[in-house]
Specification:
InterPro entries: MFS_dom, MFS_sugar_transport-like, MFS_trans_sf, Myo-inositol_Transporter, Sugar/inositol_transpt, Sugar_transporter_CS. It is found in: Membrane. Belongs to the major facilitator superfamily. Sugar transporter (TC 2.A.1.1) family. This is Monosaccharide-sensing protein 2. The protein has 709 residues and is mainly α. It is built from 29 helices and 6 strands. Strands 2-3-1-6-5-4 form a 6-stranded antiparallel beta sheet, covered by helices on one side. Strand 2 and strand 3 form a beta hairpin. Helix 24 packs antiparallel against helix 25. The chain starts with a helix and ends with a helix.
Length: 709
Amino acid sequence: MGARGAILVAIAASIGNFIQGWDNATISGAIVYIKPDLALKTSEEGLVVAMSLIGATLITTCSGAVSDWLGRRPLLIISSLFYFLSGLVMLWSPNVYVLCMARLLDGFGIGLAVTLAPVYISETAPPDIRGSLNTLPQFTGSAGMFLSYCVVFGMSLEASPSWRLMLGILSIPSCLYFLIAIFFLPESPRWLVSKGKMLEAKKVLQRLRGREDVSEEMALLVEGLGIGHETSIEEYVIGGGASEDQEPSEKDKVLLYGSEGAGLSWVAKPVIAAGHSSIKPASRRGSFGNQSMNLIDPLVTLFDSVHEKVPETGSMRSALFPNFGSMFSSTAEPNHNVKNEQYDEENLEREGGDQDYYPSDDGAEDDELRSPLISGRGSTMFNLVRGSGAGGGDEAGIGGGWQLAWKWSEKEGALKRVYLHQEGSRRGSLVSVQGEGEGVHAAGLVSQPALYSKQTVGPAMLHPSQADSKGSTWEALAEPGVKHALIVGIGIQILQQCAGINGILYYTPQILQEAGVEVLLKDIGISSKSTSFLLSAITTLLMLPCIALGMKLMDITGRRQLLLATIPVLIVSLLLLVIGNAIKFSSIVHALIATISVLVYFCCFKMAYGPIPNILCSEIFPTRVRGVCIAICALVFWIGNIIVTYTLPVMLSSIGLAGVFAIYAVACFISWIFVFLKVPETKGMPLEVITEFFAVGARVSRAASAKSL
């Protein structure tokens, strides 16, 4: 299986989240014994728990920039070392001060692992299973919680449980994590390309994809280095015939070139050149002009229009691109001796001289890397070069039905990069189309190549490492598409924390104990503390199949639809908790309502709202600033986490469980509104295409806002 390497790497990278889940459950159980042993006050109790969150927040402030500088893999290794050291110190902790220091080190490990694992997985996973693989951290985190609660429950049955041993066991999985990170995890291929390490990136991709030919994806990774270029939406009719009144002149034809590995080129007829109306993005909700009168972000509509075009079979692969050869065979036979006069001068320059190539910064050169990233012009003008896609067999393109191509713009005298997508469904076309022809309609996102430089002439381009270093990080963050993505990422992280999940998780034993759950198992003879640990273990165990279901649906139903479907269940569960605590029920009824409501809340949250914010944040930012942007979103996440965790004991004592859950229910309702209006669907789309859509969406949003004024 081609994705086997990516799956194994994702599992290995998720071990850090397993340790985080283990730690979350352990501290929620151990704090019950730490409090009397060290004579902690309520504020000190909250500080011991929140110290790891403070550490995670502090390390997150620099993790993004450092990961963009050193790479993702070194920081994952460092996180395992922090975990290991913190476990040893907690095992020794003679007083609250040393314990807080150990919790701070633990927070450093948590901050690095939780922030970088989604980025690392997104940058190594194929688009069609990226959502599923990025749900693995949520699954392993819950698995760690389950095993930890089982250990805590078993130790709670002893006469005098040792909280130091509970916390010190953390060093065992941390050691395993360190060894796997050192000897198994490769560096992110996108980061390697950004640093010009082309040969190493190619080897990593070959390992992850399980095939030798990865040139098409290498070209995509290079294109992902671009940021801030003006992007336009164009539509083409590729191949096929046309009616007499639609037939364009020879000069209106455009030749699109695939990557060197794909070995494809296509004759395209721009729709606008054939006398059609101007291009207008459209969807089932109407045009963007009408969208300016609505609250729904035009970006959401733009993404939805793409997913409406995916063929009804549900496959994320395009029905067009794997079979370009057979489609064109009826219109033109390949003729490798035919040249188009329009490109003769350019062809002679490229064929007569040395071809540009991009040597690897590794100090070695590879024959395949000496060839241009795009297929040569000249011998295949207006004729198809037969060949399979990058993956061989029936797999082609860059994922999600998208194809990477380039065209030469005579008007601007420059090369243009095109992300092509087949219009599989007329009702959901990305751009409005008038008239029907025998060719295949495809929409394209057209922009400058990432390696383009205004200082160069003709086809000459920059080295990838030079393209990555163009402009400052702050300039990149000021780009409209990046700012738009930051609004989405920060917004969903804030609202996720306001939903209260981490506060409930850290204090699950106390919450269940206050709800009177001991009445459910009083006949067994187990203490209330042990009962709450057991119920917590059962709760986390039942989460696992729910997370597995979410993992299955993440790339089928999609991130947005899962959120819109599960957040209302969270609201209902929280309202039941409010009712159960506001109305006087019998102790058994009260315990049942509390236990069932918390269980449903946890399961639904873990299935969607738990993993999706991190998944989205790892997908929507350009490669060059992905680490920094993720750090910004993670910083918001941890600050919210600290506030919720530290204030929960105070809130419980002041307004009670009913008031706390009422606040969380309101936050979930606001979350649903935010998702409906602002969060787009990113399933199955290559990361580079997603960031391009944000750039286009930001421009359209500005235009719509200006028009409404």
